[in-house]
Amino acid sequence: MRSSGYKVFVCLYAIIVASGCADSTVEQENHEELVVWEQWLEEGIDSGNSQTGPYYVPSDTVIYDDDIEINPTYSSIGTFAISDSVIIVADYVEEKLHAYSLDGEFLWSSGQPGEGPGCLSAIGGIDAAEGIFAVCNMNLGRVDLFNIDTGSYQGTVSIAWPFDVSISDDSLICAVSAVEGSIVTVFDYQGNIINRFGEWNPPETDGMVGWPEYGNVNLKCDICGDMLLLSSVFYNYFQVYNYRTGALVSSFTRTPSLPGNRSTSREWELRINDCVFDEAGDIVVLLCPTKQNWLNNRYAELSADEIPYKGFDIYDVSGVRKEGFAVETDWFSSTAQFSGNDLYLANAEMLVKYSPVEINR
Hints:
Elements: H1 3-18, H2 25-42, E1 55-64, E2 77-82, E3 86-91, E4 96-101, E5 106-110, E6 112-113, E7 119-120, E8 123-129, E9 132-137, E10 142-147, E11 153-158, E12 164-167, E13 172-176, E14 184-188, E15 193-197, E16 219-224, E17 227-232, E18 235-242, E19 247-252, E20 270-277, E21 283-289, E22 309-315, E23 321-328, E24 335-339, E25 342-346, E26 350-357
């Protein structure tokens, strides 16, 4: 990974902005690259609803694994969740959970490998809300609940191989699992099952990057208002449900599809890393390059894992694509979340905050 150099870039960018050098060569080159990515993401897409931007730049490295005094037990960020005042990090290596303030100050750790209450085995998705956070404990077939202020274990709900989880504003929890009879299980903080609904049936021919056999377990979910978003990192397929009623609101795919080598104009060599709602209730999809050649060999000399940018698609809940944008990050950044107007991205080594900016074009 190139995280050390990336941290230097974040610090350098902050210095540039703070000093008022808005037209510096480095900043201008980065902005131009963001515009090029946006234009490429728009090509081949029905642009009738397309908008310009948004643009995000790194503003702070919130958590970094070289900060030993701050992160004494930190091994690897598997995924993360943000409540109003706390960041929860799932450490996939140590089977632990770590809490930080929004400024990156270490607060507490919880969990250990094992099978008993509060123990973890193959952590999946997590989510946090006021007073509580939920953890997919995949190998043990359950979703565990913890107190967000102390990390103390609160209880569990049995769900076979839960892969992701999301907490609603009305204190309900939605967990997704393709091996349950219904793909979504809704329950309250006391573990009472409220509803089960949904099925995951992406087009069989649309498996991504050659691994369709894994597409029915590698699920992602997120909640905004009444809406529950579902997708998978191996399929160009999205579902939106009303989680209160279980009704399917929409299902859609990206056009051109991913990876899209059926296109007559170019090969769309991307796959989905994550999908979340932004603060406006739109669907934001993090896309990952899988080959170095794109946009007429723009990165012909770089392997896929050295491409220094990633793209995003934005859809409304009906599946209408609104726009695309890009951020400067490394190939390994695979988990995204919005908090207010800021975008957070994490790889195994660091969590970085991005803030919106205006770019003169």
